[in-house]
Amino acid sequence: MPVRVKSRRPAQTERLPSPAFGPRPTVQLPVIDHDDAFRDVVKKLSIYIAGAIYLPSTFEQLRTTSAGDELRTLVEYLSAEVTNPAIVNALLALRWHYGAVNDGRGVSEARANACEIVAWRFLTRLSEREVVEFCLYEIPDGCSDGTPAPNEEGLEAGESHERTALLGSPSRQSHDTEHDPTHSRNGTLRRSQLFQSVSKLTMSREATSTGEGEDEESDPTAPFIQLNALEIAAIADAKRFLSQHVVQKIITGIWNGEIIFWDRLAVHSTKKPRFYNPNTADPFSRLRVPKYLKAYEVAFFAGFLFLYYSVLIEQNRYAVTPLEIALYIWFASFFYDEVSEYVDAGSIFYAADVWNLFDMIMIVIGIVYVVLRLIGLYKEDYYLVDIAFDVLSLEALFMVPRVCSVLSLSPYWGTLIPCLKEMGKDFLKFMVLVVIIYVGFLTTFSLVGREMFTFPHMAMIVTKIFFGSSYVGFDIMEDIDPIFGPPLMFIFVILSSILLMGSLTGMLSNSFSRVITHAKEEYLYVYSVYVLEASTSNRLTHFYPPFNLLALGIFRPLRLFLPSDSKFRQARIVLLRATHAPIVGLIQLYEWFTKRVNPDGFDSFRGPRQNTINRHPGPPPDHPHSRPRSGGYRPRFPSPRPTSGEVITKAKLREHALEEDSEDAPTDVEVQIAELSAKIDRLTALVISLQSGANAGNAQT
């Protein structure tokens, strides 16, 4: 039985907050054991967060002032004594809950920021290997008491999924989920489920503190099953957490394929995070690396663009050419791939990538083109065929930027995109005022000058004036009306050319300067979402377009007659190996060349390649925080002596304990110094070993 936390009732904390001036209430630290279930961890942390953060505070105040003292205490306690692997998941789930609550006082926002701060401060006190394990730990599909669910045996036996892990159904079972109709739920439904689930946990903390249990039949943590901490952070919009250096190093490792989730393409493969070992991993597992997925996507769109220009240049009005048939195949594979991606990721992650909006518009334009083209050929209506080609020409407005979307992964271009996005939102809001003024003057000018100008003519004149052709208004103001025309025209020109345009320019400038300060966080958030969306899918076999049409045509009809057993998966694996062998060959050639150029290319993460969270050795006798517990202390990686980088880091933590978050992540120079120190340590060890061998040889002689 986990130890219950004895503290004052949270309801009293919320209804009767302590005054702004006075002693801070004492809050007892939560007792979290290693084997506590995820729901229990969330409850205990919510009690502490609700008691520690009782006044509205900004993010900076929680980071740098005494308002965050309780958070520092919690971080020190978690890093020293708590080993539960779901700590980061629970903190980010609470950040999602408090961020979605609008209490009107700002307390919920302060609590959401507090959860995010505690999450990344906790990670900064871990080693690289432990950070990877905590961030990629998935909430197990088990009962509320922490015992494994019956279906976990099938998962451990190697039953592979064919469904994504991001936003599937609330309970992703180990059987083939493509047969489960509940998996058609979209991301919006999943978002509401997440909010309701955490709300149940936080609102039930009063019953927890008094010893009363909640209904065990309805597990409120079900929507979080098989979500890791990074996925929860993306859903919770924890952009500051995702932008931290310690987290981005994991994201970059996943992007480059240093951290993988599938190491072999076999029927009984299991999905779990692991470090890539080129000597033991299956070469076909590299097909799931986001970097190679993006490279193939660019090549696919380049071929799409070639077929598109070929069809438009030819424009055969009377028959469907082979190039047009190839364009149809390319478009169908693109459409099926986008639909699969939407179903896999859900609307939340899918909408987070701005380029997916371009994809949806391209699909709509392509469907309209195909329908008009086929109807025109069937009815021999060549005017309709010409309209179809005109519609297809609109595709270039979105296809050309889509080919160049790879630039958005660079920091420079990726930072500009969020700025343009926010400026576009402000522009649309400002245009409401412009339309109001425009309609008012257009109505007045049309009625006053109705004997000289028609309404469409006047509408075009007013539009020209608004876009800067002021001389047009001065030329016709006497024709509109000798009395009212000149003063009205002067007022309209002043409003449109000076006041409105000047205000719009200043507003967009302020909007750009406001957004650019957080544009890096927005860029890293979109980048992180893309990496997670591309890498954490539960599909064992992922076919690249246009090969996905081949798999669709062969295996989809068979699902009506054959069960999804090992033979069925084996057939998909055989087809994948046969169709994607050239792509894998190119990937292997690229990695071989990269390894020759940079031998330490996969040396970003060091240490033993083994899981440390699941090991529970007893605490050493001299451990300062040793005490009888149901779990065990978090094991540290053995090392004969501390490296220079560790000494520097620990010294900084001791000297700047109260100022640790003035610079939340180490700078690039500090990172380079730490890496250089590690290399110096290895070189020193090598020199010492060589000297020892030489001395031993001299002694023998």
Note down, in words, how this protein is organized.
The protein is built from 27 helices and two strands. With about 700 residues, it is mainly α. Residues about 1-20, about 145-190, about 205-220 and about 605-665 have low confidence and may be disordered. It starts with 9 loop residues before the first helix and ends with a helix. It has a two-stranded antiparallel sheet. It is globular, with a radius of gyration of 31 Å.
The share of residues in helices is 55-70%
Overall geometry comes to: globular
Give the strand order of the largest sheet, numbering strands 1, 2, ... along the chain: 1-2
Q: Give the overall pLDDT as a whole number.
A: 75
The unreliable regions are 1-22, 143-189, 204-218, 605-665
Provide the succession of SSEs.
HHHHHHHHHHHHHEEHHHHHHHHHHHHHH
Number of distinct helices: 27
What is the tally of beta strands?
2
